[in-house]
């Protein structure tokens, strides 16, 4: 009988890895410390719990590298994409899900798979032998983190990841707010009205920025440093970089028309995205924060339309641990000093739900092949998945390595048809090439 592959962590990466391994005919054991050992961010003991947002971002597989990654995961029979599609919510051109139903369905699918078994409890050290995938994510336990640091000979890098607040929909003042996706994007009316928008004029915006800057913030523990990932900056950190920064980020007003006052262009707009299938909860898009709870309530209720808002969850901040993967992992995501250990997900230095799950998919396929006596290399760097894994395992500069989302900047350059270089020509050329190359990798 084939020796099982052990996975530490049942997040998105671990869940996807387990699914891929079992589908390859190899037994897999999932080790998950929850609920015996809790984290501050998780609410359940389900697999693939989404703790920050309910969005997998753009689902456009022609013009967007994330959408292309969705396509590749679907082509590879990915569990995460299948369950996301099953519990999809209207979100314009994005793929957003009912997070509780999504994680419950991932858990049910894994528990129904005969080759998957669960071994509850915390893994506190690095196993000496066997086939293992470490997919413990940004909240790797202190004990396991120390074991990894001791083995690698270098302290794990860390940044602080922030959680956006969630509002009860029935407490939003729809006489002020209105429903509209940016640029009315979407094929159905439900998609075109997937977001709730709260407008601000110049005076309201300036007052909001003043309150944000003055609000009491969470203090860091002794010895911690605040190295934020630019794709997930707390709003107050963005505001500190310039008073207009938020107007060109999560509060940009472009592509939106106030349904109540169409003749008045908002100076800034706060968007809320549907967070569950019932449409009873909405998260404030891009509003991750490290403000203290009392300050959050005061500041967020100053937003027009949210003056009576009731919060299902306030924002938070936590330490996010990741490896310096370019120096520690080989191209098959194995720890160079202990090749029987693979790493997957956010701990490898990728950023985002989709990227984490994709690295789980890849690690799972590689581990299954190895358990069966075969060798499987990564997809070509011309694909979204290949570009990402090539970046974290050698393409990035180790001295300045930081977490990375998938993007076309990681792809090898391509000459668009007739020498045209605009992104409207280049991006479809990237994704067309990626689909061809990924399909060939799967077939091979």
TrEMBL record:
GO terms for biological process: tRNA methylation; tRNA wobble uridine modification. Residues 5-374 form the MnmG N-terminal domain. NAD-binding protein involved in the addition of a carboxymethylaminomethyl (cmnm) group at the wobble position (U34) of certain tRNAs, forming tRNA-cmnm(5)s(2)U34. This is Methylenetetrahydrofolate--tRNA-(uracil-5-)-methyltransferase TrmFO. Keywords: Cytoplasm, FAD, Flavoprotein, Methyltransferase, NAD, NADP, Transferase, tRNA processing. SUPFAM superfamilies: FAD/NAD(P)-binding domain. GO terms for molecular function: flavin adenine dinucleotide binding; tRNA (uracil(54)-C5)-methyltransferase activity, 5,10-methylenetetrahydrofolate-dependent. It catalyses: uridine(54) in tRNA + (6R)-5,10-methylene-5,6,7,8-tetrahydrofolate + NADPH + H(+) = 5-methyluridine(54) in tRNA + (6S)-5,6,7,8-tetrahydrofolate + NADP(+); uridine(54) in tRNA + (6R)-5,10-methylene-5,6,7,8-tetrahydrofolate + NADH + H(+) = 5-methyluridine(54) in tRNA + (6S)-5,6,7,8-tetrahydrofolate + NAD(+). Its EC number is 2.1.1.74. Its cofactor is FAD. Belongs to the MnmG family. TrmFO subfamily. InterPro entries: FAD/NAD-bd_sf (IPR036188), MnmG-rel (IPR002218), MnmG-rel_CS (IPR020595), MnmG_N (IPR040131), TrmFO (IPR004417). FAD binds at residues 9-14. It is found in: Cytoplasm. Gene3D superfamilies: FAD/NAD(P)-binding domain. One of its GO terms (cellular component) is cytosol. It comes from Paracoccus suum. Its main location: cytoplasm.
